[in-house]
Amino acid sequence: ETLTILDRVSLQVHPGELVAIIGASGSGKSTFMHILGGLDEPDQEFNAQENVAMPLWMRGVSQQDGLALARDALEKVGGERQRVAIARSLVADPACILADEPTGNLDSANAEKVMELMFTMTRERGMSLVLVTHDREIAARCDTIYRLVRGKLERVELR
């Protein structure tokens, strides 16, 4: 028996657009995000600040400046792994951020702080954001919402 996780899924994200992907656990949301961006985990041999500075060093930023920018980014976000991933993505100033359950392991106060920062920073910088979430309130703050059902993306309205 063949199990189809994603069935000819296509997604177009416009510059500056905030997109939420919702769906039941096990529906393939994380698989889709990994395919979208080839996501990798922060390197375990580095501390949080070094993990955040890594993409800056790869772009030629000095070690000292990279660490300073990383420290500033970490201070702006409120759970260690989520903080590292979010700060690392924001400090590199990409065109698009892919976020798979960015508030999944955070308490409600830090979750709100993190999402407010992500929404503010992406809007201010004109970045696109594609995020997977189970939180309907977070999804409702996005421009476009899709539900992943039986391997297909369906556009939905939560408002």
From TrEMBL:
Keywords: ATP-binding, Nucleotide-binding. Residues 3-158 form the ABC transporter domain. GO terms for molecular function: ATP binding; ATP hydrolysis activity; transmembrane transporter activity. Gene3D superfamilies: P-loop containing nucleotide triphosphate hydrolases. Pfam families: ABC_tran. SUPFAM superfamilies: P-loop containing nucleoside triphosphate hydrolases. Transmembrane segments: none annotated. SMART domains: AAA. InterPro entries: AAA+_ATPase, ABC_transporter-like_ATP-bd, ABC_transpr_LolD-like, P-loop_NTPase. It comes from the Eukaryota. GO terms for cellular component: plasma membrane. Belongs to the ABC transporter superfamily. This is ABC transporter domain-containing protein. It comes from Darwinula stevensoni.
